[in-house]
Design a protein that fits this description.
By secondary structure, the chain is an alpha/beta fold. It is built from ten helices and 17 strands. Strand 3 and strand 4 form a beta hairpin. It is globular and about 60 Å long. The N terminus is likely disordered.
Length: 372
């Protein structure tokens, strides 16, 4: 660990273990810690560098944030490998990762934040309003440098408060996965109500959040995944029924059986491609399908449009996770219901390159986090 300075302050906050996740809950601030970042140096490879620039100073309505935790997402892996699946391209030397959380080290002269505030980064300029307000302009971790660094100066209105009961490792997972799931459930073209049934796919970050949010809002959940071990995690998160899609490839029909032949009200589809065929079969008349990801190599599927028309289905996609307005609301929802993200593993700062490689072969449920 590289740092310089005379003062070290250590605080502790309460937390809870999650499987392999063993949080330290030690928030350490080095007043003059080295200005370091992990930068993309070759396809799929990042290198830790001491930046030649000094620690930045915040402007009037900005704050200097000491990043404490960074959560990785499938999009980070696609960007690192210059994949055609992602809508933008990374550049060599870029700092990756969209998700981050930290502590305000120095507020600007007119900042709304104060030193010591725990915050989550809202990476985009999408502050409010509908999907068409989203832009990739200056989107951290995609078209601009991201969170795999120690220090960040960020605009006041692009930060939101970390829920008080979460560690910063947990809070770092909230934007990409949490806001995506929250907006699909409560802001999509189809809006579920208490008592309705939501079907989730897998046990990645978005799906785990969707289970948590749906159950907190009084809905029922049918969870699908590739193994009984992962389905056990889904049940612990609150899933009412589970389907192993490897042993039950026609999981759409199985979902109908579990709902008395009616079908689920909403499918949260994070797989894409051929899975949409099963999602349509699983969905009730007048129901909805939120298309939130593409995990398969083959994005195309043969769809019978008469099933969409005859089933009066609403199929909608999302991009950019959500607005700052939705981020604030989601964070308040997490705090109100005392929800805790599912974390697969936490890597130390010096292991961030290993964390990126682990993202490619992630088998444990939940999020990969780097402690900074």
């Amino acid at each position: 660990m590289s740092w310089s300075g005379e003062h070290i302050s250590i605080t502790k906050s309460p937390g809870q273990n999650h499987g392999e996740y063993q949080p330290s809950f030690r928030h350490i601030t080095y007043l003059k810690m080295a200005n370091q970042a992990w930068q993309l140096t070759a396809p799929g490879a990042i290198t830790l560098n001491d930046l030649e620039t000094p620690i930045p100073k915040p402007g009037s309505y900005q704050a200097l944030v000491r990043i404490h935790a960074v959560a990785l997402n499938p999009g980070d892996n696609l960007l690192a490998n210059f994949s055609d699946k992602y809508p933008v391209k990374a550049k060599l030397g870029q700092i990756l990762a969209t998700d981050g959380a930290g502590v305000i080290e120095e507020p600007g002269p007119h900042s709304i934040w104060k030193k010591g505030d725990r915050v989550v980064i809202h990476p985009s300029k999408w502050l409010s309003g509908p999907q068409e307000n989203m832009t990739f302009d200056s989107f951290a971790g995609t078209t601009a440098d991201g969170m795999l660094r120690r220090w960040l100066v960020w605009d006041d209105d692009r930060l939101f408060r970390a829920p008080s009961h979460l560690s910063l490792e947990e809070a770092s997972t909230l934007f990409v996965a949490g806001v995506t799931a929250y907006r699909a459930l409560f802001y999509g073209s189809f809006r579920p109500q208490p008592g309705m049934t939501v079907l989730t796919q897998g046990t990645g970050g978005v799906s785990c959040f969707a289970i948590l949010f749906a159950k907190a809002a009084g809905m029922k959940v049918v969870a699908t995944s590739s193994s009984d071990e992962k389905l056990e995690v889904a049940r612990k998160l609150g899933a009412d029924s589970t389907i192993n899609y490897r042993t039950t490839p026609e999981w759409g029909q199985e979902a109908r059986k579990l709902t008395g032949g009616k079908g689920v009200d909403l499918v949260v589809d994070i797989v894409g491609g051929p899975s949409l065929v099963q999602a349509i079969r699983a969905t009730r008349f007048g129901g909805g399908i939120a298309v939130l990801g593409q995990l398969v190599d083959e994005p195309t599927a043969e769809i019978n449009t008469s099933q969409i028309l005859g089933g009066a289905l609403t199929i909608f996609g999302q991009a950019g996770s959500g607005s700052k307005e939705v981020s604030d609301e989601m964070s308040n929802f997490v705090e109100e219901h005392r929800l805790r993200p599912q974390i697969a593993r936490v890597f130390e700062w010096e292991e961030a390159d290993q964390a990126l490689k682990a993202l490619e072969r992630l088998s444990a449920p939940g999020k990969i986090v780097v402690r900074v």
